[in-house]
Every structure is written in structure tokens, then in C-alpha cells.
Amino acid sequence: MPELPEVETIKRDLEDKVRGKRVKRVIIKNEKCIKEPTSKEFIRKVEGKRFEKIQRRGKFLLIGLDSLDTLVIHLKLTGQLIYSKEGEMIDYTRLIFVFHDRSQLSFADVRGFGSIWLIPDEDFDRIPSLGSLGLEPLEDVFSLERFKDILRKKKRGKIKPLLMDQSLIAGVGNVYSQEALFLAGIHPERNPSKLLDEEIRSLYNNLRKILQEAIKYRGSSVDNYVDLEGKKGSYEQHLNVYGREGQSCPRCGAKIRRITLAGRGTYFCPNCQK
Asked: Is residue 223 over pLDDT 90?
């Protein structure tokens, strides 16, 4: 599933490619991707409108229309947004926005879990998983002290699932939580409330660092992620532990291990991470 760096990359591409463009036609090839409103109402409310403000919140993309309605898109596991010339065929396309300049934005999704909503006036509480999102880890409000508060309040549980809890920290998923823990030298099964101050500081700094670096390289294409032009991100080659079971740790040479934690495959170095 695309995480913060991948969704931020797409958001910046959307700002560059489609902001200011007016929708000539909406083509719905699979109604299941539209969660709200009905398909007919969706077409009526989007056709003729201009894409204006482009935002990201966690793993959600938000496209404000000049009607004050907001398109909300969640790519889930395999969703993709592809910008191309009008009429170009994209595999597994679910929905197409055709613009007046003969370009188009296609929403493609192999597995079909991605979702699109049209909500009025940025009423994000209409989508519970969006309205309840936690802090954005790259914004100033996500201070070291706020991060400490989040960890200290969790008397039970394990640090890696906590980093992935979208109600606490928005946008961090399976890939970047593991990479941040590796750089901080923290085992993914540690109790968050038992971390030392210097460990918390290291994790905080490395989490922000890894997200910023991944954005610089336009994300990691470990699954189906591509950018708006259908190109893969290049950060995958810089990953230290994710997907590298049995390979040598880049720090100490020990074999990287894989465990299942909260239902997700989790990679770590048994020597470097304590």
C-alpha cells in the first residue's frame, strides 16, 4: 500500500499536471470504486468543475473543486492514478476524468480495493478513517515532545504497530516503520512506554529523515505503486531491511530476520536492533 512518501509524490504530480484543469467528462467503468454519492450524482457534480486545491492527509489524496466539493481518493493496496492523453487505455481502469485540453486522469486498480468519495465543503468527518487521522509526521506540530506523549501513553503493545496506527501518526505504514526502527536500533517488538529518551529521540529523527528521503526519491515501488506518469519510485534500492530476509545487515553483516507482527511481515536485524 502506498505510504506517505508515495502519496505525497502523487500529490505533487497532481499539482503540476491537473491543478486548474476543468473536467469535460467523467467515465465510470466500475461503480464499486465510488463510495459516495451515487454514480449519477458523482458525474453530475464533477463534470464541468475545475480541479483546484490539491492536498494530502495521511494516505488520502484530496482534490478541491471550484464548487467547494472535495474529491477524496484512497489508493489502498493497488490503486494508481495515471495521467495521459485522452483516450489512452490503462489496464484495470475504474474511473476516468477527461479534461478539456484532451488529457485525462485514470484511476486504475488491479484488486479493486481503492475508494473515491465526493464530499461537500471538506466535511472529512463523513469518512471516519479520514476524520480520525493523527498527526502528520513531517509537519511542525509533530514535535519530539508530542511524539514522546504518544509513546508514553501506550503502556501495552509494541512499537512497530504503534507507528502504523493512523489515528496516532498519519501516513506511516509497513515499509517506513521498519526502516525507521532499523536506523534507530530498536527492535520492532519493544514496548513503546519502555523506550529510553535517547531511543525516542533517535526514532523521531530517523522517522522524519526516512520519510523525507523517500519523497526525494519519489517513493518505493515495493508493490504496485507508480507515479502519475506510470514510473516507479527509486527509493526501494535504499531500503535497509524491508524485504531483505536472509540478506546481510548493511551495518553488522548479520542475517536479516522476518517475523509476523500484527499480521504484517516485519524485517529487522537481530544484532543491531535491541
From this structure: no
